[in-house]
Amino acid sequence: MSNSPELPYRLIATDLDGTLLRSDETVSERTRAALARATAAGAAHLVVTGRSVAWTRHILDALDYRGLAVCGQGAQVYHAGEHRLLTSVTLDRQLAALAVAKIEAETGPLHLAASREGLEGDLLVAPGYRVQEGPLPTVPITDAAELWAAPLNKLYLQHPDLDDDALAETARCAAGGLVGVTMAGSGIVELLPLGLSKATGLSLAARRLGVPAAATIAFGDMPNDVPMFGWAGHGVAMANAHPELLAVADEVTVTNDEDGIALVLERLFD
User: Is the pTM of this model over 0.90?
Assistant: First the structure.
């Protein structure tokens, strides 16, 4: 990798949904070209997503992406070229079950889903949990006990009445000493291993690439990107970003559907 002092950033960290991906789950030709020019100049591109590897691999393969990717909200560092997990952190299921009980004591019954650990990890969906429409595979279950039967990297929460921000805040207050709580998108409130965030996985991957935080530019759109912005030298929020991320961004670009990443990279690398 180039250490040229003229390179504005040596690492470009991009979230996927609402950021690199357009609403139709594709990456525009303009954005592909801007990333290609930046990598040709010597920068590395690193995908940093809340999605588990099982839900990310097909996108990386379609992009012919061969480098590292941080998946599962920082839990997984994945080598796309070798289709191999390099690091993986699991959620303590006893702590997670206790956390759910503490949250439900405040909110009443929750609807749950769980992401199983591993390259092929299924997303198990218990009754009542609303799955977003799209091509991503899920496994419906009838007995919620099945959620806890094998190692997990995260648990998803929904509530019939509370909105995402209120649910995340309630979960944090009730169980924040046991698990991490983040909001990753519409209808996506997650319980994670305590202390885990996108910044954890990003810092691990950056260390492998030999790039410091100050030489990293990060792009995102949701509260789960806040720790990543805190770690990176420069944080760029999409215009469609959540107010919590806009509040900590160093810069705001246009939306994911208007090539917000490309607009910034063209300015920096052209």
Answer: yes
